[in-house]
Write a structure and sequence with these properties.
By secondary structure, the protein is an alpha+beta fold. Helix content is 39%, strand content 28%. Helix 9 (256-268) links the parallel strand 14 (249-253) and strand 15 (273-278). Helix 8 (230-238) packs antiparallel against helix 10 (285-296).
């Protein structure tokens, strides 16, 4: 599950990460908007709160020089949708003077178990393109050791930021992913300002299985459940996760980290993600069929990229589920590209090829093919 930005900012604030002054306006509250504008002085950044990535490119972030312009921006955003869902909340925040934009994230890898930390000297909307030029630092953190001092020094030198505030941010992110059962926690941009290092945007993916169990997630869970679409309700029932975006390509994987990496690779090659779907571990043909049927029902989706690393998830079960869904739907206008690797890979490959679907061994080749 992907929380709203303001929910993630509350999490990182509780861990000592600095964020800009902001307030939240609900779609049914003009009073809250006026109170918000009186609390925060202009200029403003006005941001629709969405459960997904690609908000800025969708035109859902606006800049306002004064209160009247902010009011118009809020009204415009509430009239929009994202991935077919209405905008329910808008964040009005103080626009800060930015010296540099950085990128920082932590992601859980389960097999083998480690925390992957990513740092880039370039942040912001075009982070994929800029990071490919400027480079990305990748560090594996042993979950039994945590963030070590040499890691902080290395990242501090790489990003050219002071050691002590960076240490607090890294330790805060690392603590948050455990306390809140997060698959991913991302600060983008993490801004260097005259007043220090401040997280201007924050995103996360929450482990769906933890929503019912972790008391810290109670308010986030209640808000999420009250907003579930029919597709999201089906996903929860069947044991997979889905996020609707605004592009034309569905990205399907088994595991949040793998699916996010696939989505990032798609964007870096010019693809336009329209749906993020994590099958989870050990997906049966029945679960895969339900997931693929959901994708096939979205007429805006023209391409599907399926990336499976077989382990507890069997490649042949995934292939069976996809083919069964295709046979039932009768839809033929969708380009489907597979990457299969791992347990029962050859069996899965034969099932797909018998139906006319090519399965690539190389992840990079599959991504290039789907955007071609």
């Amino acid at each position: 599950m992907i929380p709203y930005e303001f929910e993630v900012k509350e999490i990182v604030k509780s861990k000592g990460v600095r964020v800009e002054p902001y307030c939240i306006v609900a779609s049914n509250s003009n009073t809250a908007l006026e109170e918000c504008l009186s609390e925060i002085s202009p200029p403003y950044v006005v941001k629709a709160q969405v459960r997904g990535w690609g908000r800025a490119k969708a035109g859902l972030v606006k800049f306002a020089e004064d209160r009247e312009e902010a009011r118009r921006g809020v009204a415009e955003l509430f009239a929009r949708t994202f991935g077919g869902a209405p905008i329910r909340y808008v964040m009005v925040s103080k626009r800060l003077g930015i010296l540099r934009e950085l990128y920082l994230s932590v992601m859980v890898n389960y097999a083998p178990p480690y925390i992957l930390l990513l740092a880039s000297r370039s942040g912001g909307v075009e982070v994929e393109e800029q990071a490919s030029r400027d480079g990305v630092l990748r560090i594996k953190i042993d979950p039994f050791e945590g963030v070590r001092d040499y890691m902080v020094r290395y990242i501090s030198k790489f990003l050219d930021v002071p050691l002590d505030p960076l240490r607090g941010i890294l330790e805060g992110l690392y603590s948050a992913i455990w306390d809140y059962n997060l698959h991913l926690l991302e600060l983008n941009p993490l801004a260097v300002t005259e007043n220090g290092i401040i997280a201007l945007d924050a995103k996360a993916i929450v482990d769906d299985d933890a929503l019912e169990q972790n008391p810290r997630l109670g308010e986030i869970r209640s808000r999420y459940e009250s907003e579930l679409t029919d597709e999201e309700a089906l996903a929860r029932k069947m044991g997979f996760s889905v996020v609707l975006l605004n592009g034309d390509t569905a990205v399907i994987g088994n595991g949040a980290g793998l699916t996010m990496a696939t989505l990032d690779a798609l964007v870096s090659l010019g693809g336009s993600p329209g749906l993020f779907l994590d099958l989870g571990g050990g997906a049966s043909a029945e679960r895969v069929k339900a997931a693929m049927s959901l994708v096939l029902g979205k007429l805006s989706i023209k391409r599907v990229l399926v990336n499976i690393l077989g382990g507890i998830t069997r490649c042949d079960e995934v292939a069976k589920g996809v083919v069964e869904a295709l046979k039932e739907s009768g839809r033929r206008d969708m380009k489907i590209v597979f990457r299969l690797s791992g347990f029962r890979e050859e069996e899965g490959r034969r099932i797909l090829e018998d139906y006319g679907i090519r399965a690539f061994k190389s992840f990079e080749d599959a991504v290039r093919e789907v955007v071609r």
